TrEMBL record:
GO terms for molecular function: RNA binding; RNA methyltransferase activity. Residues 610-628 have a biased composition (Acidic residues). Residues 339-355 have a biased composition (Low complexity). S-adenosyl-L-methionine binds at residues 237-243, 266, 295, 315. Coiled coil: none annotated. GO terms for biological process: rRNA base methylation. This is S-adenosyl-L-methionine-dependent methyltransferase. SUPFAM superfamilies: S-adenosyl-L-methionine-dependent methyltransferases. It comes from Canariomyces notabilis. Residues 324-389, 461-486, 573-628 are annotated as: Disordered. Pfam families: Methyltr_RsmB-F (PF01189), NSUN5_fdxn-like (PF21148), NSUN5_N (PF21153). The active site is at residue 422. Residues 129-516 form the SAM-dependent MTase RsmB/NOP-type domain.
Amino acid sequence: MSLYHETATILTGPSTHGGSLKSRIFGNKDLKSPPAQVYALAFEASKWSAVLKEVVENTQLLQRERKLSPVLSILLTHDLLLNKGGIALPASHGLRASVEKHRVRLQSEFTRARLRRKCPTLDALKAMVDAQLGPAHPRWVRVNAIKSSLDEQLDTTFNGFEIVPTIADVMSPASAGRKLICLDAHVPNLVAASPGTDFTKTSAYKSGAIILQDKASCFPAYLLDPRPEDGDIIDACSAPGNKTTHLAAILHERGFARGQKIFAFEKDKQRAKTLEKMVRTAGSDSVTVIYPGHDFLETDPNSPEFRNVGALLLDPSCSGSGIVGRDDAPQFHLPALTNPPSTSSDASNNNNNNSKSRKRKRRADVKQTGPEPKPGPGTDTTEPESEKDLQTRLSALASFQLAMVVHALSFPVAKKVSYSTCSIHAEENEQVVAAALRSDVARRRGWRVLRRDEQVRGMAEWPVRGQPLSSSSSSSTSGGEDGMEMDSTALEGCVRAEAGDGMGVMGFFVACFVRDGVEKDWEGDPDGPFLRDERGRIARDVDGIPFLKSTGERAFALQEDENDGFPMELRFAEDGDGDDGDGPFEKDAQGRIIRNADGMPRLKRHRVEEQEEEEEGGDDDEWGGFDD
Ligand SMILES: C[S@@+](CC[C@H](N)C(=O)[O-])C[C@H]1O[C@@H](n2cnc3c(N)ncnc32)[C@H](O)[C@@H]1O
C-alpha cells in the first residue's frame, strides 16, 4: 500500500481507536511506509486541508477524477503544491498522474485561495495557516495511584521536565520546544505536560503507572467520590476504561472495603477487549468485574448481584461534540463531492476556526458506539450537518441517555450516580439531567443534583458550571420552553468544561445525582438507621463504617472470610513503604485516619517526606499541598 493510501486509512479510521495521531501511527505495526513520513504527511495535510479543500472543490478535481477519494485528493494536492519533492510516487503511477494532469488548474486555484486570504506571498500564507492551528492542547497524564505515586513519577517519567505554575505556561507558544509540566489544581494525581509530548514509549505508560486521560474526563470518577462505605460501584459504559481505572485508583488510595468490587459494563464486545487490557495494565483487575458485551439497560437493578451497589458512574455514548485535543493534529477538512465552487465568503468561513456554530456542527460522528445512526467513513471531517439532522441525532442520543440515567437511578441502595458526556449540547447535558429529575424514580426516591458546596474540593472550585437551559440549548426552542428548567442550585451543581477557554480541557459535562434517604428504604426510620453527630452527619469509625443506632456497633460485622462479600473490613493495598501493620494512612492521636480537605486520606509517606524536608531545611513543597 502506498504512503498515500496508508495515511488516508489512518486519517479516516475511527478516531476513538488508539489515542493520538502520533500513537496511532507510531504504534501501528502494520505500516509499510516509514511512520515518520506518514505522520508528517498526515499532520501537514491536515493543517492545510481547509485551504486545499477549497482548491479541490473549485477545480472540481473529484468530479474530474472519479477514482480519487476526498481524503486522497487532499493528500496528493498537498504534496503536489507544498511538498518540495512533489508527489512521492513514480511518475507513471496512476494516482500521481490523476492529480498532476490538473497541475496548472490546481496551482492557479491555490493562488486564488491565497489572494482571497490577502496573503501576498506563499510565506505569508504559511504563517497564516500556522497561526490558525489554534491554542495547543496539553498532554494530560493521570498518575495511576495503584501502580505509582505523583512523587515517584516526578522523579522518573517527568525527570527533566520543568515544573511551571499554570496551565497557561504549559500551553504558551513561547514554551514551544520546552519540556514543561504543571500539577493540576483540581484533580489529584493529574499532570499537564507540553502539547504533543509523547509518553507512549515510557515504561510508566507501558506498565500502567501513568494513564493518558484528558482533565475533564477525570471529573466523573473524582466527582462521584467513591468510598469504601459506598459498597460496589457500577461503571455502566466502561470501554476503553479510563474512568473504570480512575475509580479503582481513587478507591485504592482510600482502601477498598473487603469484597468491594467495581462492575464494569461494556456493550461492545470488541471495545470490551480494550477495557480488559486497560484494567489489567492499570492493576485494577482484581477489584473489577467486567461484563463484556453486556447492555447495562438489560441489567436487573433488583438482582441479588447488585444488592450492594451504592454508586454508579454513567458515561454513555454521546455526540462527542466536545472532543478536541484528543489528537496532536489539526482537524482534517474534506472536500465535498458535489459542492458548488467555494466563494470568498466560504473561504472566510473556513478561516473562522473558533466560531460557535462551527464548533457545534464540527463533528458528524458519535463518540462511541450507541443506539444512534453511525457516521460513514471519514468521520474526522468538518462536513457541515444541517440543523435538522443535528436535532434528530441529538434527540435520539438524549432519549438513550435519559433511559440510561433513569435505569441507574433505580438501583435499590444506590445513593450517588454521576452522569457525563463529552458533548457541548444542552440536549445531552442539562436537559437530560432535568428530565431525569422529573422522572418517577427520581421523585419517588428523592434524587437531586449534588450541590456545589457538597462536592469534592477540586470540583467545587472548578469555575465552569451548568448553563441555563435557554442559553445553552443548540435548538431554536429553548430548554426552558420545553419545561426542562432546573433550579439554580442544581445548575450550579452541574460541571461543564469548555474547550478553548485557556484551561486546556475539552468540552465536557458532568453532574452527580445523590439522594439522602437511602436508609429509609432499608429501615423505615425517617432519620435512617445510623447514629448521627450533633450536626446531623452520620457518625463513622476510623474506617468510614457507620454506627448503627440500634446497637451502637459498626453497621457491618468484620469477618475474616473474604468470600462472605461486602462490606466487611478494609483492605489496604500494599504500600511498599514499610508497612507497620497499621495501614498506609496517617492517624491522629485518637487513631482516626487524617483526611485532607477533599476527603482523601493522607499517606504516611507524605509525612515522612515532609519530615525529611524539614530536616534538610527545605522550603514548603508547593506540590506537597496538592491533596490539601
Ligand atoms: C463514552 S464511551 C465510555 C468511555 C469510558 N467511560 C472511558 O472513560 O474510557 C461509551 C461506551 O459505552 C458503551 N455503551 C453504549 N451503550 C451501552 C449500553 N447500553 N450498555 C453498556 N455499554 C454501552 C459504548 O460501546 C462505549 O464503549
